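Input chain follows. Return structure tokens only.
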Amino acid sequence: MTAAYTFDVFSSLDGYGAAGSDWSGYWGKQGPELLDHRLASYGAEQRMVFGANTYRVFAQMLASSTEESEVRDPWVTRMRSLPATVVSTTLEGPLDWPDATVVSGDAVDVVARLKEESEVPLRSHGSLSMNRALMAAGLVDRVQVTLFPVITGQSGLDRIFQGAADFDLELVENRTLDGDIQELIYRPTLH
């Protein structure tokens, strides 16, 4: 039996994973329901999978934060405590992340092997280019999009599906959090 792989991503309505200007990491829209749900989603045993760029961003962001900052939300602290695999041809261990290992090689090969060997589900938060490649290879079982009620047409950064293959999506779960944040979970199939 292969481990399920979830590509978990935050998005603006216009498909950006982040924004510049004066937007915060949650576009300033996070509330207690979202934060509690995120913590519950990361509560079960699972293995995180990151590309090198996302790992660097997380490690730098966490290193420069304090215990009181919104960066250290309980779900982020929980995510950091989970075992992690960082797929990279440029990084070398040890990493500034508890229980993380660097695996060199092509992400498709690495994740295919992880799916066969892992006894727990796999999850990736961010790592956009890596996850687009994994989706094209048919290795992503679920795409979990947390859709924030903002349009960042002028300041949007990191188009989530820019250059991705075409996919049909089957909605398997959805919920509204804090009144206007949508979580949509899809099963992707190459079109």
